[in-house]
Design goal:
This protein is α+β, with helices and mostly antiparallel strands. The chain has nine helices and 13 strands. The strands form three sheets. A seven-stranded mixed sheet has the order 8-10-7-11-9-12-13, sandwiched between helices. A four-stranded mixed sheet has the order 3-6-4-5, covered by helices on one side. A two-stranded antiparallel sheet has the order 1-2. The longest helix has 18 residues, at 53-70.
């Protein structure tokens, strides 16, 4: 398996001096700071049992690259630790295909890791480069900042629900939502360096993840929940159930869109730089806490939603 991995993961970057095959990889980033992030995905908890090898490989890379994007780091390297019940050459090839598809056109080398027998689980460490002075940090939100999110929210949570519920939505809509669960689009956050103040990727749910920014920055926020961007597939899936849409968008995880805070005059520049939808949904306030409102002016506290987001140590019999 290691030979198979090494044969398909030949380094492409000039600053990768040694990749797979020795006791350690050697990288030479040339003076820039490194951002390092690690995520573990376990079958039955972080992805449904029976997820294809391609989708497991795709998601394992995408979720880590999304973490780098949230800090405006440029992804460069990744290591992979794979636990699998057995060695299956076809599965391994499909897994690598998915990982490479997630990387896409980004200049990222997979430079090493580990393999072992066990329950299916994948741990990826992703490394990127960044300028520490222009990076986005959770503790850097400023009063008056616009809160904006990329793409759309709630699709992945609806996709997961569609796998376990008898839904009347057309199969094509369910498939589109499940695809968003299995193959999240990580955004090119490095393009926003110097434009945004704080950032986080929406992995555990918007309320939970935005809450991390508010706590770290010592500020509060006001959100217009009717401004949350929804895809056509999500709108069709929930139909007229507005409360269902709001719950999925506020507490559902796995979208891996970016939640960012930035000065209002920078919004258009940031939208053009990142090349995807960037929707303002609220504002950072001096008063601590998170207040939600609807377009018609109804306000309520975020605690009205009984589930605040994905809990990694919740009962494993209720997988995400």
């Amino acid at each position: 398996m290691i030979e198979q991995l090494a044969g398909r993961l030949t380094p492409t970057r000039a600053d990768t001096r040694l990749g797979v095959g020795d006791d350690a990889a050697i990288i030479e980033p040339g003076g820039r700071a490194l951002a390092v992030t690690t995520d573990t995905l376990i079958e039955g908890r972080h992805f449904p049992v029976g997820t294809t090898a391609f989708d497991v490989g795709y998601k394992a890379l995408a979720v880590n690259l999304s973490d780098l994007a949230a800090m405006t780091a440029e992804p460069a390297w990744a290591t992979l630790a794979l636990s699998t019940p057995g060695i299956d050459s076809d599965w391994c090839d499909a897994f690598i295909d998915g990982a490479r598809e997630a990387i896409g056109g980004a200049s990222v080398d997979l430079i090493g890791g580990d393999t072992t027998r066990g329950a299916l689980a994948v741990t990826v460490t992703a490394i990127g480069t960044l300028d520490v002075e222009s990076a986005a940090y959770r503790n850097a939100a400023r009063v008056g900042d616009v809160i904006a999110v990329t793409g759309s929210l709630g699709d992945a949570a609806a996709g997961l629900a569609s796998l376990s519920q008898d839904q009347s939505a057309p199969i094509s809509i369910n498939d589109e939502l499940v695809a968003r669960l299995n193959r999240p689009t990580w955004r090119k956050g490095a393009a926003l360096a110097g434009m945004v103040h704080a950032g986080i990727d929406v992995s555990d749910g918007l309320l939970a993840d935005l809450g991390h920014i508010l706590e770290a920055s010592g500020v509060g926020a006001h959100l217009n929940i009717d401004a949350l961007p929804a895809s056509a597939a999500l709108s069709a899936w929930v139909g007229g159930e507005i409360d269902t849409r709001r719950r999925l968008q506020l507490t559902g995880g796995d979208d891996y869109e970016l939640c960012l805070t930035l000065a209002a005059p920078k919004l258009e520049q940031a939208r053009a730089a990142i090349g995807c939808a960037l929707t303002p949904i609220g504002e950072i306030t001096a008063d601590r806490g998170l207040q939600l409102s609807t377009a018609d002016g109804k306000t309520f506290e975020s605690t009205v939603f009984s589930v605040a987001g994905w809990d990694h140590f919740d009962d494993p019999s209720n997988p995400q």
